[in-house]
Design brief:
Layout: E1 6-9, E2 15-21, E3 28-34, H1 42-53, E4 57-61, H2 78-90, H3 93-107, E5 113-122, H4 124-135, E6 140-144, E7 163-168, H5 176-186, E8 192-197, H6 214-232
Parallel strand pairs: 3-4, 3-5, 5-6, 6-7, 7-8
Antiparallel strand pairs: 1-2, 2-4
Length: about 240
């Protein structure tokens, strides 16, 4: 089980765990990191630690807890992939968004938080970060290669706070005409900024992942850091 060190109170009176990497400076903004389909695994915890080193409290909640608390898988075996997809398919999207909203509320009260919170999600989490941009009061949001976005374009007009989107050119889950459709739709909202990374595949920023691309990941990280600095640096 992941080393959860924060408990979140759900809207329906239950509790679930989250991994919190504390920034070294006081009065820091919070980054709500939304997991991939593999749970709050070593890759997600490393991502939190990397952002904490950049001056952000980073909190990654367990979004599969309603099915199985503490899921921790990798992308290394077919069996783990099968389990991960099963958890994704079994997830109640509405309840998951409520849990993320509860985490957002908790994040604003964390020790040494400046009250400003951004979300950042990858894969399934990229989809959820996009939806948090439309359905929460997060100060800003970042979506990395979100899945299923073509079916959620009706949410584009509902996005009022800044959203940064990273797309992989060769993403098998969002490619060709589908990627163009999504790009065209989000380009109509002035609050949304998006980039396509040429020649890379889905999950190009997954640390130690099969399709990790160091150059594209570094460029996306730098863009994300600048975006967060602009949108989260000022205390409430």
């Amino acid at each position: 089980m992941p080393p959860f060190n924060v408990e979140i109170q759900s809207h329906d009176g239950k509790t679930f765990g989250a991994y919190w990497a504390k920034a070294t400076k006081a009065n820091a903004p919070v980054l709500l990191v939304i997991q991939e389909i593999f749970g709050v695994n070593a890759s997600m915890r490393a991502m939190c630690e990397a952002w904490a080193a950049k001056g952000y409290h980073a909190i990654c909640p367990d979004i599969f807890w309603r099915q199985q608390p503490g899921v921790e898988l990798t992308d290394k075996t077919p069996e783990e992939w099968q389990q991960a997809i099963g958890y994704m398919n079994g997830m109640d999207l509405g309840l998951c968004l409520k849990d993320l909203q509860s985490t957002l509320k908790k994040s604003r009260t964390l020790e040494s938080s400046n009250g400003r919170v951004g979300t950042m999600g990858f894969c399934l989490g990229g989809k959820l970060a996009y939806l948090m941009a439309a359905k929460s009061d997060a100060n800003c949001n970042i979506s990395y290669y979100g899945v299923g976005l073509a079916d959620l374009l009706n949410e584009v007009p509902n996005i009022k706070n800044p959203l940064l989107m990273h797309f992989a050119e060769n993403d098998k889950y969002l490619n060709g005409d589908v990627l163009k459709k999504v790009k065209d739709a989000v380009s109509k909202n002035p609050h949304i900024e998006s980039y396509v990374y040429p020649g890379v595949e889905h999950a190009f920023s997954r640390i130690n992942g099969e399709h990790f691309d160091a150059a594209a990941s570094k460029q996306a990280f730098e863009r994300s850091y600048k975006f967060l600095d602009v949108n989260l640096s000022t205390p409430l």
